[in-house]
Specification:
alpha+beta, single chain, globular, Alpha-Beta Plaits, 7 helices, two-stranded antiparallel sheet
Length: about 260
């Protein structure tokens, strides 16, 4: 190796060290970058940035769920639907074809004629078929059981819409003009109930639960045997819809 080669190698080595030092400083400054609700790009060897303090992290030790007591749900009440639309920046529904992350369903017993009304939404299954069929991984389940869609990787194939047995997925056909920063939406993407994940991560309950005037909706940790929802599920022997599908939904029902 001649003198010029040796100098050039030292220059490359210095440049490489400078580049690494710069990247390390950027990683330190960033701390954690949010890619989607509950998904973070973490800098190696550093804690979450101070700006994220107080945000509850998704953990496999928790299973967020809903208990819907249809015996307390009034047929003429749509407070949960309105709260969902206002919280998530969805336009108020004008027809049955409009986007609804939560909808009121009425069941009628053909023998007795008795009717029962209750809200229905994404069931946040432990084994979600929408996730299984998604070719890009845009449909995903967080560690705490909340099922979401990453609009940045959704290609609009609508496989998840077809795969959901609860008809809980929507597709955005038109430009979005009312979206909120904490609830990203976009034309050409699939979407559905997020359990108000932005509220849950702040230690709050979903908007539909907070708005229910009769206490028909109860939110909490299904994994905690001492939580109010787990105790109530046991007391009422609440069950998911279509338990024969063996999807283990996080939304349980009583009186349906």
């Amino acid at each position: 190796m001649n003198r010029n080669d040796s100098c050039r190698d030292r220059e490359i080595s210095e440049t490489d060290r400078s580049r690494r030092a710069f990247l390390a400083s950027v990683a330190t400054a960033m701390g954690a970058v949010s890619l989607a609700p509950g998904i973070f790009l973490m800098s190696v060897g550093h804690e979450v940035a101070a700006a994220d303090e107080g945000v509850r992290r998704a953990s496999a030790s928790v299973r967020w769920g809903l208990l819907i007591d249809a015996t307390r749900c009034r047929a003429d009440c749509d407070a949960c639907v309105l709260a969902c639309h206002q919280e998530n920046g969805l336009p108020l529904p004008q027809s049955s074809a409009d986007v609804r992350w939560i909808r009121k369903v009425t069941l009628r017993d053909p023998k007795s004629g008795a009717e029962r009304s209750f809200p229905a939404m994404c069931m946040h299954c432990a084994h979600p078929p929408c996730v299984d069929v998604c070719p890009t991984g845009a449909s995903f389940k967080r560690a705490d059981g909340i099922v979401l869609v990453n609009r940045h990787t959704c290609i609009g194939c609508r496989y998840c819409v077809m795969a959901c047995p609860y008809k809980a997925r929507n597709f955005v056909h038109a430009p979005v003009t009312t979206q909120k920063p904490e609830v990203p939406r976009g034309m050409g993407c699939a979407e559905g109930c997020t359990l108000c994940v932005h509220r849950v991560d702040q230690g709050k309950e979903p908007a539909c639960v907070a708005a229910c005037p009769t206490g028909a909706l109860l939110f909490g940790d299904l994994n905690d045997p001492h939580s109010a929802i787990a105790q109530r599920v046991r007391e009422l022997n609440a069950r998911p819809l279509r338990s024969d599908l063996k999807l283990d939904p996080g939304v349980r029902f009583f009186g349906v």
